[in-house]
Design a protein that fits this description.
277 residues; alpha/beta; Four Helix Bundle (Hemerythrin (Met), subunit A); Rossmann fold; 3-stranded antiparallel β-sheet
Length: 277
């Protein structure tokens, strides 16, 4: 299977992995191209069609195509992302040790933070229908982190056991709301109800400038992911993402530190103005 099909089928998961795979695809195109600019424009359209809600991928691919030296730009994009991911992990210093954290889905940024919290204990939701939480649980266990695996519907009854909720992010909208795996929004509502701080661990490279001009689209995926042998006539609704509004978010764990939602746009304008313009 090629990179495009792996992206479309979700065999490649997590916004960071999707972005890196997209940069690899650009490298593949460049190696066999006789007209790099034209071929990379085609590659960009193909990549964007595989994941409608992946601004990290779009921003880094656009970053590459802004430049004249494409190979150098790809390396620069990789280094930019690598540094951002490393710096996000430093936000762990803002949390107390020996704490309990709930998380949802699979996020490289979240795992990088959790790995640096002394004595952390993690509650991982299964994240139906594709069970991305299993990947998170396996990865945490590899790092000797005490991990509990729970059904999505058990989050409410277990919320009073945790000190923090930390989730990843597929996109930051212009309203500084967060687009993430479906199930994130009700988790934020539960955290607010139980007075549990709700953090989003993400690079600001995931800001989605498209939402400045139009409402962000939420991808709806195949009903077969939920119930392949469903009864005839049954309507299965399978949104891939939901949107968590700014007022439910305690703070963003970013490559520049932990910041309240109202500070995020100014940070993007300062550090990544090319995303906005």
């Amino acid at each position: 299977m090629g990179i495009l099909e792996d992206l479309r089928s979700l065999r490649i998961q997590g916004a960071t992995n999707v972005a890196l795979a997209s940069l690899r695809y650009l490298e593949q195109v460049l190696r066999r191209s006789k007209n790099p600019r034209k071929d990379l424009e085609v590659a960009r359209r193909r990549l964007f069609s595989t994941r409608p809600t992946e601004p990290l991928m779009r921003n880094l691919v656009n970053y590459v195509l802004r430049e004249e030296d494409f190979r150098e730009a790809i390396n620069s994009a990789k280094n930019l992302l690598k540094k951002a991911m490393a710096d996000i992990s430093l936000c762990a210093n803002r949390l107390k040790g020996n704490c309990k954290v709930m998380t949802h889905c699979h996020s490289s940024s979240v795992i990088s933070v959790l790995k640096k919290i002394r004595g952390v204990e993690v509650f991982v939701t299964e994240t139906r229908p594709l069970y991305q939480g299993r990947e998170t649980a396996k990865e945490l266990l590899k790092h000797k982190i005490k991990t509990h695996f729970i059904t999505d519907s058990a989050a409410g009854i277990l919320m009073d056991r945790v000190d923090y909720v930390i989730v990843g992010c597929d996109a930051i909208t212009s309203e500084i709301s967060v687009v993430n795996k479906v199930g994130t929004y009700p988790l934020a509502v539960l955290a607010k109800r139980e007075n549990v701080p709700f953090y989003v661990a993400t690079t600001l490279l995931k800001f989605d400038p498209q939402t400045i001009y139009a409402k962000g689209r939420i991808e709806v995926r195949s009903p077969d992911e939920v119930w392949k042998t469903r009864p005839k006539g049954l309507d299965v609704i399978n949104p891939a993402f939901d949107i968590t509004p700014e007022e439910l978010i305690t703070g963003f764990m970013t490559e520049f530190g932990v910041y309240a939602p109202e500070m995020i746009y100014d940070l993007i304008e300062k550090h990544y103005p090319w995303i906005l313009h």
